[in-house]
Design a protein that fits this description.
It is built from 15 helices and 2 strands. The chain is mostly helical and 319 residues long. The chain has a domain of 209 residues. It has a two-stranded antiparallel sheet with strand order 1-2. The relative contact order is 0.17.
Length: 319
């Protein structure tokens, strides 16, 4: 552990010194990656970027404003189904469908946000889980969604390799845009307002901050990012059902990723996604029969002993 921390401290100094160079090289390498690797690696990185984007949406709520939106999978599943329905019943290009689905998910969050965001702490967290479960039940009983049987999406007349490229670059673009949005938020009055609310909501209200507006806006932004991920996911899978679209394990995974990377940071969710995937692959290869148990123990120890995530070592958080 000491050697790991020492290496992270050394990496921190290098990153701070060559910050822009590292960003440029990372983006360039990710753009070129699909041309020099297999479809398996492309799928793995697509999954990393997807969960990193979901963790960004969660981080906006818990990391920036202090509200644990554990039920964000509701927007993921809703957007996935809207994408499936629109692609099956209209001739709208799939890229535009992605954004329509994400906008509807954001509006859904805003609509629910006005009453739900009056709750705080674990009451809000439990309420969001209820929203996810309620949304799943509504989807299950509707005929247009295929009910419990699910719904298939129309197949594009392209090769499987080109499909993987579309999914890869879609998720890569999403995570880059999401990180830029987070950076923008933190540098603008919205970011200062959110952190003030996180510190003490009564004080924030006393300072003249419209807490309801900022909380609802944050959840809308979070739902938009999560909704885009859900739309791309549905297009990728080609078939969705209530179990897969509203899978509680999606909640668990992006929550753990956000905690591993570091709440309240910009790039923490992306680093957390890479770390989580690395741990999953290594542990699965060496502890096949008990890999989930071993992974859970390692994650638990990491969260206990490194509660601020690996960003703590790369860049100290400012309050």
């Amino acid at each position: 552990m000491r050697l790991f921390i020492k290496n992270l401290e050394y990496a921190k100094k290098i990153v701070e010194k060559y910050n822009l160079i590292f960003i440029f090289l990372f983006i360039l390498s990710m753009i070129l990656l699909p041309f020099f690797t297999s479809n398996y690696i492309i799928r793995m990185f697509s999954s990393i970027f997807m969960y990193a984007s979901l963790a960004v949406g969660f981080n906006i709520m818990l990391g920036y404003i202090g509200y644990a939106a554990f039920g964000n999978v509701a927007f993921f599943g809703l957007s996935a189904y809207i994408t499936a329905i629109l692609l099956n019943n209209t001739d709208i290009p799939f890229v535009i469908v992605f954004f329509i689905a994400a906008i509807i998910s954001a509006l859904y969050a805003i609509l629910l946000g006005f009453p739900i965001l009056r709750l705080r702490g674990h009451y809000f967290a439990i309420a969001t889980l209820g929203i996810a479960e309620g949304t799943r039940e509504i989807i299950t009983i509707l005929r247009i969604t295929g009910g419990g049987k699910g719904i298939s999406l129309p197949m594009m007349d392209i090769s499987i390799n080109n499909l993987y490229l579309i999914i890869y670059y879609s998720f890569f673009s999403l995570i880059i845009i999401s990180l830029l949005v987070c950076y923008y938020i933190l540098k603008k009055p919205l970011g200062y307002a959110l952190r003030t609310i996180r510190g003490d909501e009564e004080v924030a209200a006393g300072l003249g901050i419209n807490t309801t507006y900022y909380k609802v806006a944050s959840w809308g932004i979070s739902a938009f990012i999560v909704g885009l991920a859900g739309a791309i996911y549905a297009f990728w899978m080609g078939y969705i059902d209530p179990v897969s679209a509203f899978d509680p394990m999606i909640n668990v995974k992006f929550t753990v990723i956000a905690l591993l990377g570091g709440l309240g940071s910009v790039v923490g969710p992306l680093l957390g996604a890479f770390l989580f995937e690395f741990l999953s692959v290594v542990i699965w290869a060496n502890f096949l029969d008990i890999h989930l148990a071993v992974l859970g123990i390692i994650i638990m120890l990491t969260i206990i002993f490194v509660p601020r995530g690996i960003m703590r070592f790369l860049k100290p958080q400012k309050e």
